């Protein structure tokens, strides 16, 4: 393969190259929640995607080594929360391994189907899980929205270059 000024030098794909490429991709920040036996779990996700409007389907990825995976792997319903730029601390809490994600400053309440719903988010959905698709060391979870609220105030939190960011005017 030859190099060109537009392409740079092509390198064989590797986990490091893949991560470097996706650091260039700005993504919205969401928190996914679920519960089992009244105990809530959750994690920060930047892999949230709209799949279809009819029926209303979305997807996200979760690592099978995640502390939330054992609950998500069996959950009938999950919560999806779109975070605002004012919720960087919340995103960091749910991204941190070993953190008490539902203690301290985290405001939440049981929502439809018993799913933990976070307070103060831009929007949230409760989804019925319809598929868990193997994808390497992750699973792609597909959910069908059954309840939600889009009326939160503010602007979205973004993730880019390994940091949380906000939109510019």
UniProtKB/TrEMBL annotation:
State its Enzyme Commission number(s). 1.-.-.-
The membrane spanning regions, by residue number, are none
**Location of the Flavin reductase like domain:** 22-166
SMART domains, per database record: Flavin_Reduct (SM00903)
Q: Please name the GO terms that the record assigns under molecular function.
A: oxidoreductase activity
Q: Which InterPro entries match?
A: Flavin_Rdtase-like_dom (IPR002563), NADH-dep_flavin_reductase (IPR050268), Split_barrel_FMN-bd (IPR012349)
What Gene3D superfamilies does the entry give?
Electron Transport, Fmn-binding Protein, Chain A
Matching entries from SUPFAM superfamilies are given as: FMN-binding split barrel (SSF50475)
Task: Identify the domain of life.
Answer: Bacteria
User: Does the keyword field hold Chloroplast?
Assistant: no
Q: Which UniProt keywords apply?
A: Oxidoreductase
Q: Write down what this protein is called.
A: Flavin reductase family protein
Q: Look up and give the organism this protein is from.
A: Streptomyces noboritoensis
Task: Please name the taxonomic classification of the source.
Answer: Bacteria, Bacillati, Actinomycetota, Actinomycetes, Kitasatosporales
